[in-house]
Write a structure and sequence with these properties.
The chain has 392 residues and is α+β, with helices and mostly antiparallel strands. Among the domains are: 139 residues, 2-Layer Sandwich (Beta Polymerase, domain 2), CATH 3.30.460.10; 41 residues; 54 residues. It is 49% helix and 11% strand. It contains 21 helices and eleven strands. Helix 16 crosses helix 17. Bound molecules: adenosine-5'-triphosphate and magnesium ion. Magnesium ion (MG) binds next to loops.
Length: 392
């Protein structure tokens, strides 16, 4: 098994070692290296206390100091170095009341969620794998470190993390761990909407998105959202047919709910994404025009991005013809919006159309004419048409 670390990580491990401390990479990065996946981030764990870490490096930041994490800036990159920790009692089903620094790597590994995330490594010692994480990676299973029932009772977010890793890695959730999720599912209600959204966003675009259905099998969805729960597990059946995009996939789920907008609000979705998702849900059945005039009109109403998104969303329909007409329209630079119209409000005023409603109407009529026939989009041709409208 080959572990190649970035030079910043190697340098930090080396420096800590030279100064008499233990230091390892740990967690997701070790798991991902074993799986030949690219790690999201590199976590370093050490028995050096935060102040000792800070004294060894020129540039450090205290971002996570409360939990023992010092950010070390090296080679233009931030690296997180965390002192070995053990957690105190958990009282709110999410956060430990206190964290204790310890000089025992074993203690630190014990507090971690899953065996596959509880492996430490450094080049000198090799792997420290006290919970059979490597074997579980080989068997492709997600298993809690120690008693799953207790671990989910401490921190309910771990249940969603289990499903998310199952989706991302294609691993099965081990039987006892799965049973404990079903038993502790109601505790997910104690987790903040932001953290739930973060995990669901990762799960919904994962390689094995069918795991999303497990939110119903385990009972978690009932406590995450009543409305999505009521839509039923089948609403997740077609997720894999859509591109791996969270907007498209959320719309696919929420189109089955009574009120997508309030669900998105509850999940603290940002306005821009929420509006796109709502747009897709609202236009799930809107006829999509198949001729150039209709496409130009739809483009002026929705804009190119939404138009394309909607055709991707409606995966069971064939839009290849529509898309080639759309490409042609854009390539030819056809007039789509009032901004591109060769006439503006002032031109119309100069021929006697009064400001206000009449002018707005006249511009809209002219734009419609140009949508029908883009060649009309020049002043000489449009002015007479405008005059004709006045007389009408
Ligand atoms: P990702 O690839 O998404 O970064 P990760 O396993 O690195 O996955 P992080 O959230 O970055 O996950 O956390 C780093 C490590 O910290 C985990 O591998 C795990 O050992 C530990 N950890 C994170 N969250 C928890 C938790 N809620 N309970 C216990 N241990 C946790
Ligand atoms: Mg990580």
């Amino acid at each position: 098994m080959k572990i190649t670390m970035p030079k910043g990580v190697t340098a930090i491990l080396e420096k800590l070692k030279q100064n008499g401390f233990e230091a390892y990479i740990v967690g997701g990065c070790v798991r991902d290296m074993i799986l030949s996946r690219l790690p999201q981030d590199w976590d370093i764990t050490t028995n050096a206390l935060p102040d000792q870490v800070k004294s060894l490096f020129d540039r450090t930041y205290d971002t996570g100091i409360k939990h023992g994490t010092v950010t070390v800036r090296l080679f233009d990159t931030n690296w997180e170095v965390t002192t070995y920790r053990s957690d105190g009692l958990y009282e709110d089903f999410r956060h430990p009341n206190e964290v204790f620094f310890t000089d025992s790597l074993s203690e630190d590994l014990k507090r971690r969620d899953f065996t596959i995330n509880a492996i430490a490594y450094n080049p000198k010692t090799g792997f420290v794998d006290e919970h059979m994480g490597i074997e579980d990676i080989k068997k492709r299973i997600i298993r809690c470190v120690n008693d799953p029932d207790e671990r989910f009772g401490e921190d309910a977010l771990r249940m969603l993390r289990a499903l998310r890793f199952s989706g991302q890695l294609g691993f099965e959730i081990e039987e006892k761990t799965c049973t404990a999720i079903a038993k502790n599912a109601p505790l997910i209600a104690h987790v903040s909407a932001e953290r739930i959204k973060e995990e669901l966003d990762k799960l919904i675009v994962s390689d094995n998105v069918k795991v999303f259905g497990k939110l119903w099998d385990t009972g978690l969805m009932e406590y995450i959202s009543e409305d999505i729960f009521a839509a039923g597990k089948d609403c997740a059946a077609d997720l894999g047919k859509l591109p791996r995009d969270k907007i498209l996939r959320w719309a696919q789920i929420l189109k089955f709910t009574k009120d997508p907008r309030s669900e998105l609000k509850r999940l603290r979705y940002d306005n821009k994404s929420a509006n796109l998702i709502i747009f897709l849900c609202a236009n799930e059945k809107t006829p999509i025009p198949a001729d150039k005039y209709g496409i130009r009109k739809a483009l002026s109403k929705w804009g190119e991005d939404k138009f394309r998104l909607l055709t991707e969303f409606r995966f069971s329909e064939d839009f290849s013809e529509v898309n080639s007409l759309l490409d042609e329209i854009l390539r030819d630079g056809d007039c789509i919006s009032l901004k591109q119209l060769a006439l503006n409000g002032r031109d119309l005023e100069s021929i006697g159309i009064p400001k206000g409603e009449a002018l707005g109407k006249a511009l809209a009529c002219l734009l419609d004419e140009v949508h029908k026939n883009p060649e009309l989009n020049n002043k000489e041709k449009l002015l007479p048409i405008a005059e004709y409208f006045i007389k009408k």
